[in-house]
Structures are given as structure tokens and as C-alpha cells.
Design goal:
Structural class: alpha/beta
Radius of gyration: 24 Å
CATH class of the largest domain: Alpha Beta
Strand order of the largest sheet: 9-8-7-15-14
Number of strands: 15
CATH superfamily of the largest domain: Glycoside hydrolase/deacetylase
């Protein structure tokens, strides 16, 4: 397919590159030569201000992909085939699908002035997807399905890429063990707190685990191994390796042999990544230290990451990850609600709006995190299963990528999380297993 546009811009090239990846085996070729475009005998896509003929697919462009800099955008949503769209225009599509995709993928709105949540992050209540009630949808993938259908009607011989549904289970190891390997001071303090609150069951459990008479309630790794083996899924583990245990960084020390052994064990059969600590968001030099620690333990280069507490801001956090040689990040989602932060169920390159260029950092957005469902949305295990299934069927319908986040403690023996282990097992064995 030949695409005509009066001028190329980094924003347009980035957007077309994403569409090429999602829709075509043979990429769209761009031209600025009107005569070449009009004379071309194959499928033609006109992205300009005027239509040339009825034998082309015409999308009347809006300004966004041809602007430089960041300024507030006027976004007015309307419905097309029962789904929200914006940047209304003319042509064979009633909206500028290229500009709309770029706006959502680039997270343009996160560069504009906005309110922060309780943890200083971009609040999901600011987002267009939340305000217009499409946060629960991979809207970009849905648009592309409609775009493909419309192109196929005009060009029946056009060949499209056939994507396949993919599932990636991921785990954040924020607290590897509840009681074990934490030293006598932390265990003594925890025991005293339990006694002072009258939490006798927790106190007895701590003593039994430390004495070696009972398994640690957060030690769910063997069970996960057997589940992955049965369901034939490839899991990713992200380890928190803060040098100091304080505030939101509560894992055992990365110098402890138990944590080293746990990391080395998982490094043999899984993909590992760094889980940059909360502290690294305030002290940038800690990011390199934590990555180096993981590389020393695994004796492998660290290329994957996910921010602890989903704490990141644009563009600073992603630029730091790039400087630290991170290639793939799994933080694109909210730490307060489940859904599609970038309105997409596909991996995509991060576009640095401040520098107006596509980066080499590839983002893998997640749609579900157990902590959001439990702590923020106050769901029961059965409600969480229904939420999981909704995302699963929605993503499968568009042959997209489904990334979920779980924490090892949700699968343990803590009564607080009763039923969550069963929910996850049902989800993997009865649904995902059959797609692998």
C-alpha cells in the first residue's frame, strides 16, 4: 500500500510504524509526491487535506501529527460502530485514526498539567479513557479491526498480517517471604505488634515458620512452577532489590543468600527483570545499583523492568531506564485501577514527546493487577475472576496481548487472600491453557 502525505514527521512515521506492525506483513510505503501517488495502480491511502479520486482510501488529516511541541488538545468524543472515537474529520473514516492512535500511545495527556494521586503518580481520573468510559477497552486494537475491515472493502486483494492472541503472566516479588530471612529484629518487632493487637494466630504462625515447623505463607514458588509447567506458559519475574529496607521497599536484603538463591533459581527457567525500588524514584543513582545487583546475581544482562508501585512519570522515568540500558518495560498501566492505560493490548515503542522521537524502549502494557482488584477496587476473588475473564475475552477478540501482574503473597496461606489462588488456577487451566 502506498500512503500519500504532503510531509513526513516523526509523529506520523511512528504511528505508521505501529500500524504496520499490527496490520501488515508488507509495510505501508510513504510518498510526498502527488503525481507518483495518483499514478500508482495498487492500494492507495491518502492522508492529506484533499481527496484526489474515489479509487483511494481518504483520511482527512488533523493537525496533531504535524505539530511540534505539547499543548492542550480539544478532544470531543463521539460514537462510531458503538465505540468512542475522537479527532472528527472527513473521508472514508469520520475521524483521524492516525492522530487518535498517536494521542493515546504517546500518553500525550500525561505531559500536560495534571493532578497527582496519593503516591505522586498520574491519577487515572485525569485520563480521557476514564472520563469517557473506555478504560476497560483496548480501543486502539478495536479501531484497527474496523480500519482493516474498511480497507478490505475498498481493496479486496490487500493482504493483512494475522496476529495471534498472546498471554504473558508476570509477577512482582516485592516481599519474597513473610517471616523467613528477615533477621531477629524485624521478626521480634512483628511479633510484638501482633501480640499488642491481639493477633494471636499471626503470632503463632510467625513463631512456627521461624522455627522451621511451618512453610512461610508467601513461599508459593513451587506451586507457581507446577502451574506454569502444566499450562505451558512463559512467566516473567520482577525482583525488588532495594539496598535499604524502608518505606515502600520491604523485601529482604539483596545480599541475603536466600534471596540470591531464589533469584538464581528463577533465572534458570524464567525471564527476569528489575523492579526499581520506590527509593530509586528519588535517588536516580540507585537504579543503576539495583540493576547491577541483579546482573551480578544472575550473571546475565538485565533488559526488562517494571516500576515498583507503578511509580513513573513521563518522560523522566523512561529516559532513565533507557540510560540504564533497559530495553523492555512492563509498567504501562495504573496502580489504582485495572484497565488499559494506553488504550492498547499490544506492545509498542515509547515515543518521547519532549524530544519528538521514537525511542528503542518497548512497552508491554498490563490490564490487570491483583493489588488493584483487591486493595483499590475492593473486589472479592470471584469478582476478580469475572474481571479477568472480561479482559481475556475482550483481548482475545482482537488477537491482542494480555499481560497480568500478580504477587506471590496472593497465592499463599494468608486468610486475607483466601480464594485468590483458586481463581488464578481456574483462569490459567480452564481458559489460557487452551490458547497456548
Amino acid at each position: 500500500m502506498l500512503l500519500y502525505t504532503p510531509n513526513n514527521t516523526p509523529r506520523l512515521l511512528y504511528t505508521i510504524g505501529f500500524i504496520n506492525k499490527e496490520l501488515f506483513d508488507e509495510p505501508i510505503r510513504l510518498t510526498n509526491d502527488r503525481q507518483e501517488f495518483v499514478a500508482y495502480e495498487g492500494p492507495r491511502l491518502n492522508y492529506s487535506d484533499e481527496e484526489f479520486s474515489l479509487q483511494e482510501f481518504f483520511i482527512k488529516r488533523t493537525a496533531l501529527l504535524f505539530e511540534i511541541g505539547i499543548q492542550p488538545q480539544i478532544i470531543e468524543c463521539f460514537e462510531l460502530n458503538y465505540y468512542k472515537v475522537f479527532f472528527q474529520t472527513g473521508g472514508d473514516l469520520p475521524f483521524d485514526i492516525f492522530a487518535a492512535i498517536f494521542y493515546l500511545l504517546s500518553r500525550y495527556e500525561e505531559y500536560l498539567p495534571h493532578e497527582k494521586d496519593a503516591y505522586g503518580r498520574y491519577a487515572h481520573t485525569n485520563a480521557l479513557a476514564f472520563r469517557e468510559n473506555f478504560l476497560h477497552l483496548p480501543l486502539i486494537n478495536i479501531w484497527l479491526v474496523e480500519f482493516k475491515r474498511a480497507l478490505n472493502e475498498k481493496f479486496p486483494d490487500l493482504i493483512f498480517h494475522r496476529p495471534a492472541f498472546k498471554f504473558i503472566p508476570t509477577y512482582d516479588i516485592d516481599i519474597a517471604y513473610s517471616y523467613l530471612h528477615k533477621g531477629w529484629k524485624r521478626n521480634a518487632g512483628g511479633l510484638l505488634r501482633s501480640v499488642s493487637r491481639g493477633e494471636w494466630t499471626a503470632a503463632r504462625e510467625r513463631l512456627a515458620v521461624v522455627a522451621g515447623k511451618r512453610k512461610d505463607p508467601f513461599d508459593t514458588y513451587e506451586w507457581l512452577d507446577s502451574l506454569h509447567l502444566y499450562c505451558r506458559v512463559r512467566a516473567y519475574y520482577f525482583f525488588l532489590l532495594a539496598g535499604q529496607q524502608k518505606e515502600y521497599d520491604k523485601n529482604i536484603s539483596p545480599s541475603h543468600p536466600a534471596l540470591k538463591d531464589l533469584i538464581q533459581y528463577h533465572g534458570k527457567g524464567y525471564t527476569l527483570g528489575i523492579h526499581p525500588s520506590w527509593q530509586s524514584g528519588d535517588q536516580e543513582e540507585l537504579l543503576e545499583e539495583e540493576i547491577s545487583t541483579l546482573e551480578l546475581i544472575t550473571e546475565k544482562k538485565v533488559s526488562y523492568s517494571r516500576q515498583h508501585y507503578i511509580r513513573f512519570e513521563l518522560p523522566g522515568t523512561y529516559r532513565r531506564l533507557l540510560a540504564a540500558r533497559i530495553e523492555k518495560d512492563f509498567s504501562m498501566g495504573y496502580g489504582t485501577i485495572n484497565g488499559f492505560r494506553a488504550s492498547v493490548a499490544s506492545s509498542f515503542a515509547w515515543y518521547d514527546l519532549g524530544q519528538e522521537k521514537e525511542s528503542s524502549l518497548v512497552l508491554f502494557p498490563f490490564c490487570f493487577m491483583d493489588a488493584n482488584s483487591f486493595y483499590e477496587q475492593k473486589f472479592t476473588a470471584q469478582q476478580a475472576l469475572r474481571e479477568l475473564m472480561t479482559y481475556y475475552h475482550t483481548i482475545k477478540k482482537v488477537n491482542g496481548l494480555m499481560v497480568t501482574i500478580w504477587h506471590n503473597n496472593f497465592f499463599g496461606t494468608d486468610p486475607m487472600f483466601a480464594g485468590w489462588k483458586d481463581v488464578y488456577e481456574v483462569f490459567l487451566k480452564e481458559e489460557v491453557y487452551w490458547d497456548m
